[in-house]
Amino acid sequence: MNDALTQWDAERAARIGELYRDLHRNPELSFQEHRTAAKVAEALAPLGWDVRTGIAGTGIAAVLRNGPGPVVMLRADMDALPVREETGLPYASTATATDPYGREVPVMHACGHDMHTACLLGAVELLTAARQSWSGTVVAVFQPAEENVSGAAAMVREGLFDHVPVPAVVLAQHVSPMPVGTVGYRPGPLMAASDTLDVVLYGRGGHGSSPENALDPVLMAACTVVRLQGIVSRELSMQDQAVVTVGRLQAGTKDNVIPDTAELGINTRSYSPEIRARLKASIERVVRAEAAASGALKDPDLTWTHGTSVLVSDPDATTRTLDALAALVGRDRLTELAPVPASEDAGVIGDCVGAPTVYWFWGGSDPATFADDRAAGHLVANHHPRFAPDPEPTLASGVALMTTAALAWLDRA
Ligand SMILES: [Zn+2]
Ligand SMILES: [Zn+2]
Questions:
Q1: Distance in angstroms (rounded) separating the CA atoms of residues 94 and 106
Q2: pLDDT tens per residue, range 112-122
Q3: How remote is the CA of residue 147 from the centroid of ligand 1, in Å?
Q4: Which residue among 37, 198, 273, 369 has its CA within the 20 to 30 Å range from the CA of 224?
């Protein structure tokens, strides 16, 4: 065991565990992580790092310069989701918030970003306590708004690298419904590119009994949804993986009233820049053409609201990091994953400065519970209202993994 991990004692485990439960009980939506950021800043304050708050609103970057050597960036995300928690845990959330559409929504740390934040604080503490044993610079980044894949780009845009040095590597991890003590990784493209398009289709409202006097945006929307499914099935090769999902379709208020407009929310996934660009172009073509086919009097509004590139876990950097993690948990507990269709903006930070990113998933499930759930065919995964990592072993594991990965890149003192 390295010097840093010996610092994970009962007092630290209890304190970080309490902080985790506090974050879990008080989740905040993307770009609203004010209380969370205050808690992080409060935890960092006594450690002597150079702490910069308020980057892109709620983002935090903390730097510990500890002699000559490489710069290593450790990144955690802090935001929660509009999900009503059903875990029944004593520290379950009952929080609500106003979402970007002005709706009151329940809020839950259903993706486990509270775990990421707590583990990074734990790793920061261990690296501070063991600073005699290593040399270099560590940058800890607490990022807002991963769930809408906007926070990393926002932090870079708003001057992250005015405050922190360019790293040799960016390290990030995600808690996952795998047995605690296991790690999932993949060198190369790991998570999909994602883009989100909001569409407003314009018709002309009227009485449901007299469609000839109206221009029905509901039919226009329905035809658009169907036609969009032709992009992946008819325009891409079977070698190209992609998804086009219409997750939001809204129009009208009553059965016998033809509304003026209809709205679509469209989401894409892909694993290459070429396919990503093709999906965007094809979707725009279909949406405009279906509106024209309906005889729309006004062109549709198309707004690409957010998106992120493919998350690539740099192959060489991943190998170097995984060797250290294998020494910690055992090579047989590392699993190479297939590409993950979910998306993640952790890679954006390194991409902006030409630094490699290393990203891995670590298990947060009690092994027996995991085995039972898998046998029963209902594994509770991230974003589910009952997603609940097993706190203490998951924290200990996440802290040890992040600390070990950092030390794999820092010089020994
Ligand atoms: Zn998520
Ligand atoms: Zn997540």
A1: 7
A2: 999 999 999 99
A3: 5
A4: 273
Cα(68) to centroid(ligand 2), Å: 34
CA distances from 320 to 4, 165, 212, 327, 397 (A): 19, 22, 67, 11, 19
Separation of alpha carbons 89 and 215, rounded Å: 51
CA 18–ligand 1 middle distance (angstroms)? 23
Q: How far is the CA of 173 from the centre of ligand 2 (A)?
A: 9
In angstroms, what is the span from residue 384 Cα to ligand 1's centroid? Answer: 10
Q: Verify that 321 and 172 share a domain, yes or no.
A: yes
Confidence bin at 1 (pLDDT 50/70/90)? low
Query: Based on the domain organization, do 106 and 188 belong to the same domain?
Result: yes
pLDDT per residue over 272-317, tens digit each? Answer: 999 999 999 999 999 999 999 999 989 999 999 989 999 999 999 9
Please say whether the dihedral angle defined by the alpha carbons of residues 86, 92, 94 and 100, taken in this order, is positive or negative: negative
Centre of ligand 2 from the C-alpha of residue 147, in Å: 7
Distance from residue 347's CA to the centre of ligand 2 (Å): 13
What CATH number corresponds to the domain at position 36? 3.40.630.10
Residues 173 and 274 in one domain: no
Tokens 């990113």 correspond to 357
Ligand nearest to the CA of 114: 2
CA of 145 to the centre of ligand 2 (A): 10
